[in-house]
Design brief:
The complex is a heterodimer of chains A (about 350) and B (about 525).
Chain A (H helix, E strand, L loop, with lengths): L1 H44 L7 H26 L7 H12 L2 H5 L2 H24 L5 H20 L4 E2 L3 H7 L2 E2 L2 E2 H19 L1 H11 L1 H5 L5 H27 L1 E2 L7 H11 L11 H20 L4 H28 L20
Antiparallel strand pairs in A: 1-4, 2-3
Chain B lengths: L3 H4 L10 E10 L2 E11 L4 E5 L6 H8 L7 E6 L2 E3 L4 H7 L1 E4 L11 H5 L6 E2 L2 E2 L1 H14 L16 H14 L4 E5 L7 H16 L3 E5 L3 H7 L2 E6 L2 E8 L5 H9 L4 H8 L8 E10 L3 E9 L3 E5 L6 H8 L7 E6 L2 E2 L5 H6 L2 E4 L3 H5 L6 H5 L8 E2 L2 E2 L1 H15 L15 H14 L4 E5 L7 H16 L3 E5 L3 H7 L2 E6 L2 E7 L5 H9 L5
Parallel strand pairs in B: 3-10, 3-11, 6-9, 9-10, 15-22, 15-23, 18-21, 21-22
Antiparallel strand pairs in B: 1-2, 1-4, 4-5, 7-8, 11-12, 13-14, 13-16, 16-17, 19-20, 23-24
Helix pairs in contact in B: 5-6, 9-19, 10-18, 15-16
Classes of the chains: A mainly alpha (about 350), B alpha/beta (about 525).
Organism (chain A): Prauserella endophytica
Subcellular location (chain A): Cell membrane
Main location (chain A): membrane
């Protein structure tokens, strides 16, 4: 009996949780609409090739590396930071894992090497931001330069071909017609989503980005957590490096060029605030896919990349403007509903 | 300077420079000003007295054009005017020096002095002209040694105060409003400031002077206006002759304490000592603070802003690291400077700045409530969202937080309900020592009564509570025991019912007087 009495608040909470998630999805629906629209354009201009399994595989295989990097970037940006070094870390990891020495130890060591190099660079970023109190922009800008430089030095600016066939055979294979790279992309997104939305680590990431001081005064170890978030971004770069090496069967210091810009663009049009505290991985995923489809449309129709870049810029600005208007509308509406005692916005005028 | 010229009480002949009559200013849920009158003559130092929350700052912001009054008139040099913006006030010759200096530390002295009205020709700044004029102003203030090219951030507090004053003069101000200008100054710097003020008034400039230190008002003031609860309770008193007791009584007004006592009357059986603070010190903030709080006891820290109250709370909580002394909870000493250690021992802090220090405004109430207890609401790192929602919903219910929607964004809650969300965070965590810093700031009158009731209920369940408030009646009314702090020293530690509002006011304001 008492249990039954206990239930109502929970149920009402469930209902509003549902309402909340539905409301949250409204923005993503708009974004998904843009994606669908782009697919329709692709289908109309290239009806015979666009929706073939071949093209979809190619598209997603190309999207895989940048997608994984964007997952890490989403974590960093939600935590209130920025990571400009992702492209360079991809380059360094890809070079380090394909040196003759590393390749001689076999594919497992190659993979581990990429992951460790990525993670290490990320943790160095994190330690500098957290404990060295260097602004994220500067820290990762420095890493961007240094990691790329180290990659050039290690490789002597030569493209290092992968001769280890065990590695290429595994990562270039397909399971049930789905390329391994695409499966990896899906896995990284799934794990990222669970960590961000279902674990205390994720909750703390949002909390730190939303109000670092409040998080600190709630007993959260903000410094350690921030360092780990950059570590995650670095680790994602390591995974992306494996993908790039698998796709091109080579490692080079020119890999991952401009990945930081593409990743930030995907995260931002996915609705994550650059100021931190708010954002979603699903938005990021849609953001990545929008750019991928756009790319495919342009290559399939043999259009120049310059026009593609112009379109890309327009989409970034358009998406962000759209979010501003919806955010403003949402902000105006709800408080007027049922608030019994209105918020005294500036009563401390008499108290300071 | 001949003060007796100005000290004459209410002689009719002189036309006031400024007259504010019946000024009303409403904020949602609060009448911040409820009919204030203020009359200032050219060449006088007019002191504005009142407790925290009496409406002084709102009044001067109205005068500075930062707030628009909802009723009342402002007469400036015989002409009824409106001040729609700070620029309008400056153009009339009304300059305000705010308590927190509104200077830009990374710019030079000259750039700050002419900020907003830069010396320029065809859109190009004329730095030489600005430098020369700034140098002249500083010389007039007796501080030619300050270079107009110096970065303001490198100056001492006194130096910055001078820049602020130079800026007021640069606008050719006829009325300068100074809000606690001596708060950050050493005593020789205060002397210099007073000399400058005397010279200014001798040249016909009027000064509206706000200070909590009665002895300053006696030294430089001519007339005094006392405001209380947004109303003028006494106008144009003689600043030097009025007895201290009269001024304090006027500021304190009727005995408000009874309102709190009723709630707290059912006395709580006190338990063992839960929080024990021994010789806690931090250089330049507070010295040798020692007290203990029993389970069920409410201890209030009274004192002016800047007396070190919030610093004491934050140091107990580990958000600041103590230079000396210990804090122990239930006999176990906390690790200094470690919030995690305090939280683990069951200490909770509701900080002074709710929005910037405590809340995640764009997250739900539930996520805010469980923020300090994430480890308890997780298994192997995965959040247990059902339990989390259930517990936060029942806590919100217990605190009567409205609307009782655990998924509502905190941003959309009223001030009082936001404060409840902060308290709920520590209740869910099972805290046994609760540190409340200005819990009713920005909370409207009705919601305050509820918070008072809540604080008493918490104490009744055996929570040890330390309360900081700038409103003395609130501290006296809620607390069982009161510590009075002044400039970092504990002046008294006494049962609340042995103290009156006047006693506490005397202690926090005098001291430096005699």
């Amino acid at each position: 009996m008492t249990k039954a009495l206990d239930r109502p608040p929970v149920r009402s909470a469930g209902v509003s949780a549902l309402r909340r998630s539905v409301r949250f999805d409204v923005r993503l629906v708009g974004l998904a609409g843009v994606l669908v629209l782009l697919c329709v354009i692709g289908l109309i201009t290239r009806p015979e090739t666009f929706l073939t399994q071949d093209n979809l595989s190619t598209m997603l295989r190309l999207a895989a590396a940048i997608g994984v990097v964007s997952v890490g970037m989403t974590f960093v940006i939600i935590a209130g930071g920025i990571d400009l070094s992702v492209g360079s870390i991809v380059a360094l990891s890809s070079v380090w894992m394909t040196t003759l020495a590393t390749q001689s130890y076999g594919p497992v060591v190659m993979v581990l090497c990429a992951l460790l190099v990525g993670l290490g660079c990320g943790l160095i970023n994190g330690a500098l931001v957290s404990y060295g109190k260097v602004v994220p922009f500067i820290t990762t800008l420095a890493m961007m330069a240094s990691a790329r430089g180290l990659a050039e030095r290690l490789s002597g600016r030569q493209t290092q071909v992968v001769t280890e066939t065990g590695f290429t055979d595994f990562f270039r294979a397909s399971v049930l017609g789905i390329p391994v790279l695409v499966i990896m992309l899906a896995l990284v997104f799934a794990v990222g989503w669970i960590v961000l939305n279902r674990t205390t680590f994720g909750r703390r990431t949002y909390a730190i980005g939303g109000n670092a001081e409040a998080a600190r005064l709630s007993g959260i170890n903000v410094k350690l957590h921030t360092a780990l978030v950059y570590g995650i971004s670095g680790l994602c770069c390591g995974i992306a490096a494996i993908m790039v090496v698998a796709r091109t069967t080579s490692g080079a210091s020119t890999n991952g060029l401009f990945y930081e810009l593409d990743a930030i663009a995907a995260v931002v049009i996915g609705g994550t605030l650059l100021s931190g505290g708010r954002g979603s991985l699903i938005g990021t995923l849609i953001g990545v896919l929008i750019f991928t489809v756009l790319n495919s449309i342009f290559t399939q129709n043999n259009l120049d990349t310059d026009i593609q870049n112009i379109a890309k810029g327009a989409i970034i600005v358009g998406a962000v403007l759209l979010q501003h208007t919806t955010a403003r509308r949402r902000k105006r509406k709800p408080p007027a509903r049922t608030d019994p005692d209105p918020q005294p916005t500036n009563t401390n005028g008499s108290q300071s | 300077m001949d003060l007796s010229l100005h000290a004459a009480s209410a002689d009719e002949g002189v036309e006031p420079l400024l007259a504010m009559r019946g000024i009303v200013k409403l904020f949602p849920g609060v009448r911040a000003l409820d009919g204030v009158d203020l009359e200032v003559r050219a060449g006088e130092v007019h002191c504005l007295l009142g407790q925290n929350g009496a409406g002084k700052s709102t009044l001067i912001k109205t005068l500075a054009g930062a707030h628009q009054p909802d009723a009342g008139e402002i007469v400036w040099r015989g002409e009824a005017i409106t001040l729609p913006s700070p620029v309008a006030a400056l153009k009339r010759g009304i300059a305000t020096m705010y308590q927190e200096l509104d200077l830009i530390p990374s710019l030079s002295v000259a750039e700050n002095v002419f900020l907003g009205h830069e010396r320029a020709r065809f859109g190009f700044t004329r730095p030489a002209a600005a430098r020369a004029e700034t140098a002249a102003l500083l010389e007039r203030l007796g501080h030619a040694e300050i270079s107009p090219d110096e970065e303001v951030g490198r100056l001492s507090a006194a130096g910055q105060q001078l820049v602020s004053m130079a800026r007021a003069l640069a606008h050719d101000a006829r009325l300068i409003v100074a809000d606690e200008p001596t708060a950050a100054l050493a005593s020789d710097e205060v002397d210099n400031l007073f000399r400058i003020i005397a010279e200014l008034t001798a040249s016909g400039v009027a000064v509206v002077y706000i200070s909590h230190r009665l002895e300053e008002i006696r030294r430089i003031g001519h007339r005094v206006t006392v405001i209380k609860d947004g109303r003028t309770v006494a106008a144009n008193l003689d600043a030097r002759e009025s007895p201290t007791s009269d001024l304090v009584d006027l500021m304190a007004g009727r005995k408000v304490q009874t309102a709190f006592r009723e709630v707290g009357e059912a006395t709580v059986e006190l338990g063992d000592v839960l929080l024990d603070v021994r010789g806690l010190s931090r250089d330049g903030e507070f010295r040798d603070v020692t007290f203990s709080v029993r389970a069920g006891e409410i201890v209030g820290l009274a004192g002016l802003v800047g007396a070190g109250r919030s610093e004491v709370l934050e140091t107990i909580f580990g958000a600041r690291k103590a230079d000396a002394g210990t804090v122990s909870v239930d006999g176990r000493t906390l690790r200094p400077g470690s919030v995690a250690s305090a939280v683990k021992a069951g200490v909770g802090l509701a900080p002074e700045e709710r929005k910037s220090q405590a809340l995640l405004l764009d997250m739900s109430v539930t996520h805010n409530v469980t923020l300090a207890s994430l480890d308890e609401y997780s298994r192997l790192g995965f959040s247990q969202r059902g339990r989390e929602t259930r517990d936060s919903a029942s806590t919100l219910d217990r605190l009567d937080l409205r609307p009782a929607d655990p998924w509502r964004l905190v941003r959309t809650l009223s001030g009082g309900n936001q404060q409840k969300a902060v308290v709920a965070r520590w209740l869910v965590h099972g805290c046994r020592v609760l540190l409340l810093d200005e819990p009713t700031r920005g909370v409207d009158v009705g919601a305050r009564a509820e918070l008072y009731r809540l604080i008493h209920e918490l104490a009744a369940t055996g929570v040890a509570i330390v309360l900081v408030s700038s409103e003395i009646p609130e501290v006296l009314g809620l607390a069982d025991r009161v510590l009075v702090l002044r400039e970092g020293d504990v002046l008294a530690d006494r049962p609340a019912n042995e103290l009156t509002e006047g006693d506490v006011l005397d202690m926090v304001m005098e001291g430096s007087a005699a």
